[in-house]
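If you are new to this repository, start here. Below is one unmodified record pulled from the training split, so you can see the exact layout before writing a loader.
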Amino acid sequence: MKINTDPKLIEEVLTRSIDTIYPTKEDLKKRLESGGQLTFYLGIDPTATYVHLGHATNYIILKRLHKLGHKIIVLVGDFTAKIGDPSDKNAARKRLTDEDVKENVKTFKDQIGKILDFEDKENPIEFKFNSEWLAKLTFEDVVDLASNFTVQRMLERDSFEKRIKEQKPLYVHEFFYPLMQGYDSVAMDVDVEVGGTDQTFNMLAGRTLLKNYKNKEKIVVTTTLLENPATGEKLMSKSLGTGIGLDESPNEMFGKTMRMPDEAIVQVFIDCTYKTMEEIEEIKKQLEGGANPRDLKVALAKEIVKTYHSEEEAEKAEEYFINTFKNKETPDEIPELKPASYNIVDVLVESKICKSKSEARQMIEQGGVKVNDEKVESIELETKASDVVQKGKRFFVKIT
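And here is the target side for that same chain:
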């Protein structure tokens, strides 16, 4: 495989959306410039049915590396998801069942495939599951893994220290998570692991294990989290049920992007789009020069929809947004649905206006759902053909 060592492309890989590189940026730069093929991997736990825009940052970085000719592995943590990643959590995660994981992972590859080319034959991108090796570990293996770390090191995690200080429960099984994620690096014999800054502890555990088991130096690349620069709050979080899913419709993507805080515009352009840094610098200058943030947010929303759907869908989504929000009108063209069940809750979920029945019930109880412009008062309501169901100001579906 011919490796591209273009200095400008390498510099973009080393800087755009990058927080820290361990041990140093120079180490990775030298290896990228060497002309040898490196194996990069990124893990994702199926704790929800969707991959969101915050994850896209990392997949876009992998796409740049794949274009340079490097080997890419996308690892689904179907085993580690059943432990629950304690990173950045003030309480233990709910442990998922095999059924939960199987349901959540169904469309992961399709969603990630909107960014990464899984059809590439010349340099195939691997899609793996860590149950392949973690489920086979014996108790003796786990004891051996644990012997590489001290309790003191485990307690260095900010979230663990905080929970101890606040006298909140800290379960022994939560210590297993970084051991398992760390062992992924050993099992796949990778050169580099990529992940958000919230994964630093887990990724460095893998660096320790790869050194101890195979005397190999793994490089760790931590990427910026998609946060509101003004408040530091995450814009995307599966555990909080927020964010823009890559499986969402063009209208949902556009509307949710328009609801983002103005101060996040530049960072989302950097982390989630293919605009060049020169183009983004111009957008930043426009903002600083007094341009209307709404206009730039429209440009951002169109760019995101174009990336995950098409340019045509982006134009339609803009028109839909203007008609339903700016002009407060019912759109001329409303998506149609012949539902399996005409119950209002089922309709909201089947049409993907709501992600789950619990969200649908909550929206109804909060008065956020209408049928034919009449507020829905009961979750038992049965819709009928020709009814127009509406959630909020932007989401509509016509029953057939």
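Two things worth knowing about this chain: The longest helix spans residues 173-188. The radius of gyration is 23 Å.
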